[in-house]
Structures are given as C-alpha cells and as structure tokens.
C-alpha cells in the first residue's frame, strides 16, 4: 500500500494518504494463524516450444528445468483453494508450499504445461481473461472445452483475470471495474461451474480503490505481482506473488532454503 497507493507519504503529506489507508483497512485480513508459514505463489504466462515471442514467455526447456528444481528443493505445490483456506481461516499448509499460477490462458498451457502437470501430479491455477477464451489475438487462447477437459483431471483450476484484460485497472471508472469483475466471474461460472472467486490483477496493477472494487464484486482473494510471501501480504485483496520472469533461480532457492 505504501508504495502503490500512497506516494504522497514520501513527501511527508501523511494526511493525503488517509482515504487510501482507510479503504485498505476495510479489506479482509490475512488470518493471524497463517502468519507463521511461508508460501510462495509463482507466476508464469505463456510456455513456448522454441523462440520467445514476448519477454514474459517461458520456453518449455526452462519450465522443465524449473519444475525439476521445485522437486529437487522439496517445494510442495498446493491448490489455490488450499492456500485460500490457509490465508482466510488459518488452516495449515505444508512447509515450503508453493502455488503454480499461469496468467492469460495461452494455448501453450494446454499443449505444454498440462502434460507436465500430469507427469508431476501437481495442481496449478490458470487465470483466464474470459473475453478472449477460444479467440486468437496476438496468440491463440484455449477454448472453454479445453479448459473443461483440463479441469476434469482435478489438477487444473481456472479463475478470472478480468473479461477484456485492461492494461491498468487503476485508470478505469468504478463502473467499468465492476463490469470487468462481474462479467468475467459470471461467464466462467456459467461455463465451468462456480464459485470462481479468486482473481489476479492484469499486469499486477492495483490500488486501494481497485482492490475495494474486487472485494465488493464478491471475490475472496486477489493476487498481485508484488514480490513476497503470501502470508506477508497486507490483506486478502493484495496477495503477493513471485514472477518467474526475473531471476527464477533465486526465487526458488529462497523459497527452498527454509529462510
Ligand atoms: Zn494478464
């Protein structure tokens, strides 16, 4: 919050921050019993067989090496439902738990990630912009049928990542924010069944107003791209996540080292 919503504090204008702080204070807290654990949510986007098309692509070879490293370090992938029960109600999670998350529903997830998940028998979460399901934009995206088929394995679960993937939700009106959140949740609950109440912010952009909008739309957990342990998050609408696009080796080593 200090960094995202309250730049004025750096200038000593503390009073200017009070509305943002009040909004954040009203958001649901991390359960105190969860605070003793150390869980890392990991973020990838598309997984590609050959050359990367964008900087946040990961090659199949890189992902395979990272999965092998996750196993070697003794990290334990858990489902997002389990993490939510931990953060909301203080239920226990394994030591060195991680949650594997993939944003943007690229076809590479069904082609390259899903076979790997089956081999390792690991759960993963796909955050899907519902307006582009089955649509090719710059890249092709999985269809509802493909998502349904992957969910039948019990390993993959899809959750909303807005409807149209606005690049910065902070620039949207309250009404537009509500529309993005409600539409994506309703579409997904209609296609895949519900409830679909966990969310990731497009490009990790949020502030206290956006986070309050997510909470108001009925979501129970919202995940950012702010680096840090899940348990150290300010509240359930601002849950930390580690990008695997920058120094992934260091991220895994830190999580595996039993800090
Ligand atoms: Zn995204």
- Describe the oligomeric state of these chains in a short phrase: single chain
pLDDT averaged residue by residue: 92
Which structural class is indicated by helix and strand composition? alpha/beta
Largest sheet: 6 strands, parallel
The percent of residues in helical segments reads 25-40%
Number of strands: 10
First-last Cα distance? 24 Å
Question: Are any ligands bound, and if so which?
Answer: zinc ion
* Rg for CA atoms: 18 Å
Strand coverage percent:
5-15%
Q: Give the helices and strands as they follow along the chain.
A: HHEEEHEHEHEHEHEHEEH
Figure out the total of helices.
Answer: 9
Poorly predicted parts: 1-6, 8-12
* Shape field: globular
């Amino acid at each position: 919050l200090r960094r995202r919503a309250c730049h004025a504090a750096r200038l000593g204008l503390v009073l200017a921050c009070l509305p943002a702080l009040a909004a954040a204070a009203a958001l649901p807290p991390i359960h105190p019993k969860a605070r003793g654990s150390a869980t890392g949510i990991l973020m990838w986007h598309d997984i590609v067989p050959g050359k990367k098309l964008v900087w946040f692509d990961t090659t199949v070879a890189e992902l395979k090496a990272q999965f092998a490293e996750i196993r070697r370090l003794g990290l334990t992938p858990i489902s997002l439902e389990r993490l939510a029960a931990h953060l909301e109600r203080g239920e226990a999670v394994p030591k060195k738990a991680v949650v594997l998350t993939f944003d943007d529903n690229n076809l590479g997830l069904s082609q390259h990630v899903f076979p790997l998940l089956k081999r390792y028998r690991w759960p993963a979460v796909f955050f899907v912009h519902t307006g582009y399901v089955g649509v090719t934009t710059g890249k092709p995206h999985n269809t509802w049928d493909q998502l349904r088929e992957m969910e039948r394995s019990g390993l993959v679960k899809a959750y909303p990542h807005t409807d149209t993937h606005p690049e910065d939700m902070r620039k949207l009106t309250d009404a537009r924010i509500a529309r993005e959140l409600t539409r994506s949740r309703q579409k997904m609950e209609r296609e895949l069944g519900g409830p679909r109440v966990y969310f990731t912010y497009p490009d990790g952009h949020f502030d206290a107003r956006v986070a309050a909008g997510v909470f108001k739309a009925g979501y129970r957990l919202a995940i950012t791209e702010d680096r840090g342990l899940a348990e150290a998050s300010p509240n359930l609408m601002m849950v930390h996540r580690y990008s695997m696009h920058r120094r992934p080796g260091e991220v895994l080593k830190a999580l595996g080292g039993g800090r």
